[in-house]
Design goal:
Elements lengths: L2 H28 L8 E7 L18 H8 L2 E3 L2 E2 L5 H10 L26 H6 L4 E7 L28 E5 L11 E2 L2 E2 L9 E3 L29 E2 L2 E2 L3 E3 L11 H15 L5 E6 L20 H23 L6 E7 L42 E4 L7 E3 L3 E2 L3 H8 L16 H4 L9 E5 L3 E5 L2 E4 L6 H8 L10 E4 L15 H15 L5
Helix pairs in contact: 5-6
Keywords: Hydrolase, Signal
Organism: Paraglaciecola algarum
InterPro entries: Alkaline_phosphatase_core_sf (IPR017850), GAG_Ulvan_Degrading_Sulfatases (IPR052701), Sulfatase_CS (IPR024607), Sulfatase_N (IPR000917)
């Protein structure tokens, strides 16, 4: 080969490499790096307790990806979900309203959508600022208009797209309820017209075996509530006929939802986006992929925590890969406190060891005590948030108004009426949190600074203790605790402080009766 040809080839190669380099640089700089419009990712874990994460004191399980977010971000020690159960917490987070205003409770799998079409949500809020929004994972906020039974073989709506989301990929309810299928936007994924899907929560339908009749077919024994149609060796709540072509496999959740989330990030890296990643883990039934089985010292519940941590790391890695991690506001938190036994026998109690899912707090999921709503909460936003620990009293219900403030989006007077602007505290620029905070369970509790008041209620204690192995904290008389001296809520001061009891109850009444901002 002569010198001129060699030189021409060298120049051509150099030009090609330079072009590739410029293309890469252009791609990086066109990713959403607008500091005024950071991407927003909310990791919403299910049933994760205050003590279930490494940086919050977990034992017998490691969570390196979540710990990395905390070590490079802001870890809150007194942050709360709005309620001690999943549907109410999700409602409050997305709408900025207490769920008791809609009389919200844990929904069946065929329930009417709880958030009315057109009702403001975080998704519709950020849409005003040009954001693209997606919800991936557990929904459990109902679907359809409630005027007729949901036909799963047709478009299922209204749904997330009617309240501001541009894309949704869902478990229609949650893992222990039928239908056990994926819903992408309006359509049940993979459903064959020759295998129509029907669901009933009142009457047995179809010829699928049910758990209470065929316990020998079960991989995990279940209580009577969870003993209906068997899918993937697990009996669920409710009856399901047909739909075998669309059935999920629980062990696949970790890749299915991660892939959908990461695809959304890749598609929208050049625009501001909001991703609500709503985990099924570590909710029952706990069926982590074999890749994670045996990776903790606590059996399936611990292994599900490992799986959840892995998923978190995969999504964070995608943000990094797409060049948007530094300009992404990540909020990692849980929908309520922990529960060990919740319908299925997966040996979570027997294999607990020295681990304390609720940390130093009393109670858990369903409970009026602190562990019902005090949950791990981490904010990671490298462009703005400095690493540290924040002890302010915080609530997920304030994410709505704080995002509106951060993005300079005006809110209507009747929008998110319970949400307070605490942007500077979420971002670690202030220690000023809430002065008062409602904790919703089967009663209403009030945090007023260092004081905790639990309003009187009729008893569900026996049911929670016997079925969930959790202290409910529900009594016919008031309870009042001074948390600095009594973090575990053991010393009821109500009889000694009648004026404080009256003060707290009046505040609860005023919040319940509030209608306008």
């Amino acid at each position: 080969m002569n010198f001129k040809i060699k030189t021409s080839i060298s120049l051509l190669l150099a030009a090609t490499l330079l072009s590739a380099c410029n293309s890469t640089n252009t791609e990086s700089t066109t990713s959403n790096l607008n500091p005024d419009k950071p991407n927003i990712v909310i990791f919403y874990v299910d049933d994760l307790g205050y003590g279930d994460v490494g940086v919050y004191g977990a034992k017998g399980v490691e969570t390196p990806n979540i710990d990395a977010l905390a070590n490079n971000g802001l870890r809150f020690t007194d942050a709360h979900s709005s309620a001690a159960t999943c549907t109410p917490s999700r409602y409050s987070l997305l709408t900025g309203e207490h769920a008791f205003r809609k009389k919200a409770k844990v929904l069946q799998g065929d329930a009417k959508m709880l958030i009315d079409p057109g009702q403001p949500t975080i998704a519709s809020l950020v849409k005003k600022a040009g954001y693209k929004s997606a919800v991936v994972g557990k929904w459990h906020l109902g679907l359809g208009d409630g005027k007729s039974t949901i036909d799963w073989n047709q478009d299922v709506k209204p749904g997330p797209l009617e309240i501001g989301f541009d894309y949704s990929y869902l478990l229609p309810a949650t893992g222990d309820r039928v239908p056990t299928v994926y819903l992408e936007n309006y359509t049940v994924e993979g459903l064959s017209a020759n295998d129509p899907l029907k669901v009933s929560y009142t009457t047995k339908i179809g010829d699928r075996p049910v758990g209470r009749e065929h316990p020998e077919l079960l991989r995990q024994q279940a209580d009577n509530q969870h003993a209906d149609t068997i899918v993937n060796g697990i009996s669920r709540i409710g009856y399901m006929q047909g739909g075998k072509s669309a059935e999920w496999k629980d062990e696949d959740f970790y890749t299915v939802f991660t892939d959908k989330a990461n695809h959304f990030i890749a598609e929208n890296k050049n625009n501001p986006f909001f991703l609500f990643f709503s985990f099924h883990d570590i909710h029952v039934p706990r069926l982590p992929h074999k890749k994670f089985q045996g990776k903790s010292e606590m059996g399936l519940r611990g292994d599900a925590i490992v799986q959840m941590d892995y998923i978190t790391g995969q999504v964070v890695d995608q943000l990094k890969k797409q060049g948007v991690l530094d300009n992404t506001l990540i909020i990692f938190t849980s929908d309520n406190g922990p529960v060990l036994t919740d319908g299925y026998d997966d040996e979570a109690i027997q294999k607990l060891g020295d681990h304390k899912p609720a940390g130093p707090f009393r109670g858990g999921k369903y409970s009026a005590y602190e562990a019902g709503t005090r949950v791990p909460t981490i904010v990671h936003y490298p462009n703005r948030v400095k690493p540290g620990v924040n002890n302010s009293l915080m609530s997920q219900i304030d994410v709505y108004a704080s995002i509106a403030n951060m993005l300079n989006i005006p809110m209507d007077e009747d929008e998110a009426i319970d949400s307070e602007v605490l942007t500077s505290t979420w971002l670690g620029e202030s220690e000023q949190g809430r002065t008062q905070l409602i904790e919703e369970s089967y009663t209403l509790s009030l945090r007023l600074g260092d004081w905790k008041y639990i309003a009187p209620s009729k008893g569900t204690n026996d049911w929670i203790r016997d079925n969930k192995n959790i202290e409910g904290g529900f009594q016919a008389t008031p309870q009042l605790f001074y948390l600095p001296n009594d973090l575990a809520e053991q010393n009821n001061l109500a009889s000694q402080e009648p004026s404080m009891v009256e003060k707290h109850q009046k505040i609860i009444d005023s919040i319940v009766n509030k209608t306008k901002r």
